[in-house]
Amino acid sequence: CDAGTFKETTGAAACSLCPTGMLKETTGAGVCSACPAGTFKATTGAGVCAACPAWTSSGEGSDVLTDCICLAGYTGPDGAECTACDAGTFKNTTGTAACSVCPAGTFKASTGARGCSACPAGTFKASPGAGTCTACPAWTS
């Protein structure tokens, strides 16, 4: 069989096209293999598994671009390049969900956060979102 085709039996049976989400890069005997995670293949037969857009991933054997979903810490529509959550926000799940604001008493200075960090002992942050923790007034904790 040619690349992109396979057959399940020996003999004169015709070769079949590899289904979407699967590939076979060599000629001769063999079976089609699932596209690896982080890729997809929307066509049958010969071809390559295309990489998902930036900051997305897909499961093994994905067969459409929209199988590529945003990683935790990033947001955007399925099948498109995702953007990092802004400083002071986070997203701890994959998919299209929006980034959430870090609650009061927590912070995250970097972008693409999966979670927020508690203010260190002796500091506080009264408002949610971006910002830094401030030292507590003298004689308090």
Question: What is the 3D shape?
Answer: rod-shaped
Q: Using the CA coordinates, give the radius of gyration.
A: 24 Å
- Order the strands across the largest sheet as they lie in space: 1-2
Q: In which range does the helix fraction lie?
A: under 10%
The helix-and-strand class reads mainly beta
Indicate the low-confidence ranges by residue numbers. Answer: none
Count of distinct strands: 16
On the 0 to 100 scale, the average pLDDT is: 93
From the structure provided, what is the oligomeric state, counting identical versus distinct chains?
single chain
Beta-strand percentage range: 15-25%
Q: Give a quick account of the main beta sheet: strands, pairing sense, barrel closure.
A: 2 strands, antiparallel
Count of alpha/pi helices: 0
Distance between the termini: 74 Å
Could you state the order of secondary-structure elements as H and E?
EEEEEEEEEEEEEEEE
